């Protein structure tokens, strides 16, 4: 009976994971990168690289607003933080129909106060949204597909636990140079090392898709407006203003008091009725204090013109237990609450999950290559492995290269970056149809390794700020991106070495690399 149950679990684990395994790999890969999508966007906007935050950055932003929008109804300043090195400024004009949620908006250099004319790009936001929207698909259809894939992932995790007879022993087992055993150990160890994370990320993802899969109505916490603007068509008289030289609120003292109370740096400042003695100064901190409150999870404190506290609002509370649970799961899934260390832990766990998905798909082929080589189903999975796994990594690398190589003022460049991503992925899939064994893996992993390993060189050649200057001004967002890409590209080259060189010709050289790329008589011996 026990053996029959275990065999059933193995069958369910294999097929629930294989059918959508390549989609799960794409979701995990892009979702893992999305933990640092803000940093990725910073790298993909080299016009921002000269900005260096300082203690005076808030005043720099206020000076820009004073010169640009002195008669505005509201001002808002998003100050630089650990993940953002520029100032985000927005304002709302009287009796003007807003085209954006925040009215006119401008990114400003935090040092000089000059407006930054950025290139058109979706940046890391494309990869973030791709991992649950898939792009080019209707939103609800994409949610349904990814939701079903998440369900298969959850089934695969649970059944995978039951297929291991000695779960604890497998955690410390790795048998290198054993082909099938090595792939089994790699798949099991990467699954077990971050098993709590895998269960959390999969279960929370399912809950986020609950309104699509189960037709539930789940609202994400308190959706407070930034400015609470007027009804369309309502005419409001502008407030009376003072000469700039006479408007001297002690904003630095207000900021210091707010940070003293929260023991946290401020994230943004909203000023209602600027240049007026009736102005209100509203601060909010960077830290997310209440995970159950969704977007209302940060407290606020408001001062009057003279620096007196007129309102102190704690972090919001969820309207119901269901809403609290939903918001908590969303915060855990997207890591909005995470500090730098926690974000890196999530990233590392995501890397393990990505490798777990990839190794599972490869393991299916390794197990069956002797008996099923040449059969249509086996060859289809082989091609999908090469194009879906290695090809996607090439596509992500090409996306970063397109960001820097396409002209900054090119019409429609935002869409062309994404076109390059899908075009390269499609070409890799076509290539995998014809070279779906050894040569396909070596070629596409080599291409991916080059695209990522050469990114620091590409960055140095296409950014207006040199890497040395970036080091001097402490732009670790940009340098960290370059370093991770170099490390990842090197990892792909290591895979190429062991796949194409060490196992076949024994040593590394350009001649041996050419020999490794040559067709081999028995393609099934590719692993």
Notable traits:
3 domains, seven-stranded antiparallel sheet, disordered C terminus, 527 residues, 20 helices
Structure characterization notes:
It is a single chain. The chain has 527 residues and is α+β, with helices and mostly antiparallel strands. It folds into three domains: 1-50 and 120-221 and 319-372, no CATH class; 52-115 and 222-313, no CATH class; 375-527, no CATH class. It is built from 20 helices and seven strands. The chain has helices spanning 2-19, 21-34, 37-43, 57-68, 124-133, 139-162, 167-171, 180-193, 195-208, 210-213, 251-262, 321-334, 340-372, 376-405, 413-434, 438-453, 455-462, 467-472, 476-502, 510-517; strands at 74-78, 87-92, 105-108, 266-272, 280-285, 300-303, 309-313. Strands 3-2-1-4-5-6-7 form a seven-stranded antiparallel β-sheet, with helices on one face. It is globular and about 85 Å long. The two termini are 35 Å apart. Residues 216-233 and 519-527 have low confidence and may be disordered.
């Amino acid at each position: 009976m026990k053996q029959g149950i275990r065999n059933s679990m193995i069958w369910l684990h294999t097929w629930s994971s294989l059918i959508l395994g390549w989609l799960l790999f794409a979701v995990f890969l892009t979702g893992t990168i999305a933990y640092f999508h803000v940093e990725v966007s910073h790298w993909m906007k080299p016009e921002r690289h000269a900005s260096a935050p300082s203690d005076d950055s808030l005043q720099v932003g206020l000076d820009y607003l004073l010169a640009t929008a002195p008669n505005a109804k509201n001002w808002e300043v998003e100050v630089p933080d650990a993940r953002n090195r520029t100032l985000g400024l927005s304002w709302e004009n009287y009796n003007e129909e807003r085209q954006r949620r925040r009215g006119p908006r401008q990114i400003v250099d935090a040092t000089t106060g000059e407006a930054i004319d950025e290139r058109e790009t979706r940046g890391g936001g494309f990869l973030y949204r791709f991992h649950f929207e898939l792009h080019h698909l209707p939103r609800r259809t994409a949610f349904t597909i990814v939701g079903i894939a998440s369900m298969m992932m959850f089934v695969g995790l649970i059944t995978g636990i039951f297929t291991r007879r000695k779960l604890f022993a497998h955690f410390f087992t790795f048998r290198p140079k054993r082909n099938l055993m090595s792939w089994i150990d790699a798949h099991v160890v990467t699954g077990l090392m971050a098993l709590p994370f895998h269960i959390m990320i999969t279960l929370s993802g399912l809950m986020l898709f609950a309104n699509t899969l189960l037709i539930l109505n789940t609202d994400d916490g308190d959706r407070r407006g930034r400015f609470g603007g007027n009804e369309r068509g309502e005419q409001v008289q502008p407030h009376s203003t003072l000469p700039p030289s006479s408007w001297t609120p002690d904003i630095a003292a207000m900021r210091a008091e707010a940070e003293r109370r929260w023991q946290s740096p401020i994230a943004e400042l909203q000023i209602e009725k600027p240049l007026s003695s009736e102005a209100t100064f509203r601060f909010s901190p960077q830290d997310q204090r209440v995970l159950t409150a969704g977007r209302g999870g940060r407290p606020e404190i408001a001062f009057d013109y003279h620096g007196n506290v007129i309102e102190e609002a704690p972090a919001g509370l969820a309207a119901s237990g269901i809403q609290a649970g939903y918001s908590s799961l969303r915060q855990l899934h997207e890591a909005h609450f995470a500090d730098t260390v926690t974000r890196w832990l999530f990233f590392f766990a995501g890397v393990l999950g990505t490798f777990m998905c990839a190794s599972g798909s490869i393991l299916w082929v390794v197990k069956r290559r002797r008996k099923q080589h040449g059969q249509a189903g086996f060859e289809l999975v082989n091609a999908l492995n090469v194009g879906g796994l290695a090809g996607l990594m090439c596509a992500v690398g090409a996306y970063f290269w397109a960001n820097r190589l396409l002209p900054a003022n090119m019409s429609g460049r935002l869409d062309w970056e994404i076109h390059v991503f899908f075009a390269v992925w499609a070409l890799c899939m076509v290539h995998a149809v014809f070279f779906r064994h050894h040569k396909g893996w070596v070629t596409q992993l080599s291409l991916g390794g080059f695209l990522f390993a050469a990114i620091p060189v590409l960055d140095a050649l296409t950014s207006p700020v040199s890497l040395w200057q970036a080091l001097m001004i402490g732009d670790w967002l940009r340098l960290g991106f370059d370093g991770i890409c170099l490390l990842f590209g090197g990892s792909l080259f290591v895979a190429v070495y062991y796949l194409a060189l060490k196992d076949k010709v024994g040593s590394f050289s350009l001649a041996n690399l050419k020999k490794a790329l040559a067709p081999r008589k028995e393609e099934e011996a590719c692993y």
